[in-house]
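Quick one: Fatty acyl-CoA reductase from Neomonachus schauinslandi, structure tokens please.
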Amino acid sequence: MSMIAAFYSGKSILITGATGFMGKVLMEKLFRTSPDLKVIYILVRPKAGQTTQQRVFQILNSKLFEKVKEICPNVHEKIRAIYADLNQNDFAISKEDMQELLSCTNIVFHCAATVRFDDHLRWLDDAIIDEITPKLIGDRPNIYTYTKALGEMVVQQESENLNIAIIRPSIVGATWQEPFPGWVDNLNGPSGLIIAAGKGFLRSIRATPMAVADLIPVDTVVNLTLAVGWYTAVHRPKSTLIYHCTSGNLNPCNWREMGFQVLATFEKVPFERAFRRPNADFTTNTITSQYWNAVSHRAPAIIYDFYLRLTGRKPRMTKVMNRLLKTVSMLEYFVNRSWEWSTYNTEMLMSELSPEDQRVFNFDVRQLNWLEYIENYVLGVKKYLLKEDMAGIPEAKQHLKRLRNIHYLFNTALLLIAWRLLIARSQMARNVWFFIVSFCYKFLSYFRASSTLKV
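--- reply ---
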């Protein structure tokens, strides 16, 4: 039997960020492998007109929890949703709920985090924030990475006698194996880029093609997290151990390879109603990148908005494109660099696991087949994010063929117009044109004469 699964049985566990991408997968794995756990406390705040209970009901009725409900039919009875707001003092938790958490909780998984790369420091006036932010974050690319470092520092300073461990995942993507391949439910990170590329909105990006795309499946992160929880509680390390959950050192894949694999999958399973044909060009030159942004991104958006105006509809594509390019610009720091992360603690932990635990809580990224994973990722985006039916693939392929024909016709028309304008202005261009036409005529005449002689 799995020692890790047995460890969590009978425990009361608190999860922050349980309504987020990683929190959901963590909660699902706990219930599936340790159905005898006592209770999972999750901190939830009402959102979009939904109560805390309605949000829990929505999570449990998603496809992610289908296997759990077969194994643990009373799963809804083992979730205790507590109203909380992590932006408020004491998380705005009531005294009664706080007392229950303090007296009953055995293990805490802190998964809550901001996922916005453009967040601001908000406790001061905007003018002061703009002035001090560069001085505070130093060489860090944004507030996101700065607050991650602050959070780790606070944890280590305030932990005292608690058994604490820190897991640092890289770019978290769709599930690799569990509970099924390709599950994803948010637009963060690669998922949003896959949609933008698959729909034809994003066709070029300033990135270093050979830089490591340090993507890590969410279920790999969750398996490592649960193994770390067990090891930290049972072995009680003397210092806070940091575990890097990354793929770059052990099983690297660069952005060019990933782009090729994504495009190859689009050929087989295209997205419906694409704006343009999918493409993925990488350039390291800023001027070239700006050129392609103007020609391949902004210009088509402006033309399409002009068409919408002509047909009496509200233009929207320019606004969408500007928002997309802003998001992509915030990622450029990361897609133009490679990092090496120590995996010493992660590999040490793997060696401490029994063969059964290595199987049930697999976080060995060396076993990951990137071609298969990326294909499942794109399929997952299509099914779970875009809600597109596989039955629509033939029509989607026909739509891409129409877009290809429009592309060829448009380029041909531009070439003819440009050439015609050149002929009208240049005697040399006219002479070249007449020479080409004369040569083609003579070649065809010779070909016909040769065919007649052979007959």
